[in-house]
Structures are given as C-alpha cells and as structure tokens.
Design goal:
The structure holds two protein chains of two kinds. Chain A is α+β, with helices and mostly antiparallel strands. Chain A has one helix and eleven strands, in the order αβββββββββββ. In chain A, strands 1, 2, 3, 4, 5, 6, 7, 8, 9, 10 and 11 form an eleven-stranded antiparallel sheet that branches. Chain B has a single domain, classed as Lipocalin. Classes of the chains: A alpha+beta, B mainly beta. Chains A and B meet through helix 1, strand 7, strand 8, strand 9 and strand 10 of A and helix 1, strand 7, strand 8, strand 9 and strand 10 of B.
Amino acid sequence: MRGVPTGAATEDAQMFKQRAFHVAAVLLAVVLFGLFSSIAGAQSPADLSAFMGTWKINVAKTKMGRNGPDAPNILRSTSFTFKFVPDGKGVRMDVYADYPQPEPTRMARVVTGGVVLPCESKDSCLTAGGDPKEQTYAWYKIDDHVLARLFWIKGKPYDYSSMCVSTDGKTLTLISWSPETPQYQNIQVFDKLP
Amino acid sequence: MSIRSRALRAIPPCAAVLLLFTFAALVPAQSANDLSAFVGRWKIDLSRTHMGRGNLTSRAATFTFLFSKVDAGLNMDTYTEYPQPAPSRSNLIVPDGKPHTCQTSTGCLTVGGNAADQSFAYFQIDSHMLMRVFYIKGAVSEYTSYAVSSDGKTFTMIAWGAEAPDRENIQVFDKQP
C-alpha cells in the first residue's frame, strides 16, 4: 500500500525531479557536443580538393609488388581510373577497372577522421574480391595532400595505404601493403586527367 | 514505488544510452598511443632497401633506429652507424598531429639542414602504422610512413618529397634481439 506523500516528501520529490532534469540536460549537452565535434571532424569536399577529379593509372611508373617477388601480383588495365567526386556533403571515390565504363566497378566513401565505414559496393571493395559485408575501412587525413587508409576484413587489418597528391596537383601516388609484409608494396601512380 | 526510486531507475538507462552514443561517435577506430610494436632496435636490410627518391643514395650497412617508450609517445634514436657512443640524432615522436620543433642541433634529417628551420608532425594510424610530415620553414618537405609487420619482425619506412610522391626511399629494417 502506498502512503500519502507528506509535504516534505513532495518537496523532496520535486527537488529530485529538478535534479534529474538537470542531469539529463547536462548529458544531452555532452551528447550534442560529441556529435557536433564528430561531424566537424569529418572533411568537407573543399578539404579534399587536391584529390578531386579523374586520375588515370600511369602503368610505366606503377610497380605492383604487394604479394612479394615470388607470388603473382595484380595486373591493372592501362585505363584503370579513380574518380573523386562530390557525394552529398562528402566525397566519393569511384574505381573503374577500365575507363570509361557506364558505371564504376566499385566505390568508397571518403570520410576522414578514422570513422569506420562499411563497404557499400555490391560485389567487393577490393580488387581481390571477397564478401563486401565483411569489409570495412577508415580514412585518416594527414594534410590537404595526403590520406591514409586502413582496410579490415572481418575486423582484422587487411591493407594499409597512403595516398598522396603532388604539390603541383598532377600526380597521385597510392602505396599499399599487407600488414604481414609492409616491405612489399603496390606503388600505383596516377596522372590527373583534364 | 516512490518518485525518487522511479526516477533513479529511469536515469541510468537513459544516461548509459546517451553516454554510449557520445563515446561511440568520439572513439576512433583503434586505441591511441599503443606504439609498443615499434619499440626496440631495428637494423637496416640493405638488400631490401631501395633509395629511389634521389636525395640520398646509400646507407651504412649498420644504419640503425632505436625506438624507446616515453610518456608522450616514442623516442627515436638514429645511428648512422651502429654501435656508436651516442645516436647521430634523436626525434621525439608525439603522435598528436601537431608540429614539433627539431631538437637535434645538427638537424633532424640525414641530409642535415638548419635545425631551427625544421619541424615535424606525427600521426598514428593504428598500433602498427605512423605517418610523419616534415616541414622546413613551415613548408612541407617530406612525407614518411612507418609500418611494423604484424609479426613484429620487420619495419618499413617509406619517404617521399611533396613534389614527387612517385619517387620514394623505401628502407626495410630487421628487428634486433
């Protein structure tokens, strides 16, 4: 049986309600601060402007050695192409195994700050293939001309890469390696297309 | 149940959800400052090293890095030949992405230069990868990636100039006991 609240008890309850409301307000402020800090940490397209555009592979300058000297390495088409394009409030990297094609072979959203992103490509986010549902990646902005990317399969690191645009904006170099063998790399060089 | 009890029961789940949401948004992909994979002595493997950048043609066969843990991150001693009584130069690696001035009087680069003009910033990608941006008079002069293999036995440093990222110095090091 519940007792009838006394005047002191009612006052106590009201005070507690006020305190609970205060705590909730503080927590909400913390959440909003965190959310907006996180959003602010993501890059706007302008911050990645050096990367924007169409980049065609330069086969003569490209060296595919990630799997080591005794294993087969990926061969690229001479028209292998990256396109960095605006995507809503962010940037998207479209990959064309051959260019031009009606649709990109795969795509990756470019959101920097170490945010882990799911693979949204239908087939795979890797040239080597695999189940896109097991693939995630994160981008890290080093400065306006350099990005780093960490790629995971089933949450385990699968690939590290750096991506750098030269100061004159004409060359993009992508260096990638396996966690097991950073001494072997794919060094892919791209020329900016008009 | 009193109002106090009901309120007490209601607040913790809400707080937990809100805090979880906040920290999920803020926590990066991996824990910061776990740099233990780098700690130790690394001797160059000239047979796997390729200096393609054009600014530096060779290293001594005993060129060595010695990484040790410090509160702020790592101390990186460079020995152009090993052993020597003292390191040729030392850099403090603070992986905070902020420029730090060169503290070595003879300069923080193999090619020398005026230490007062030199600064650098380190970025931690995860426990096995760092990146460094090197500045001379505030302008980017060099980018470098530092990577330790997952088995902890090999360290690879790739450096390139801001003007020509397609030409790299790729230096491979073996962990010493």
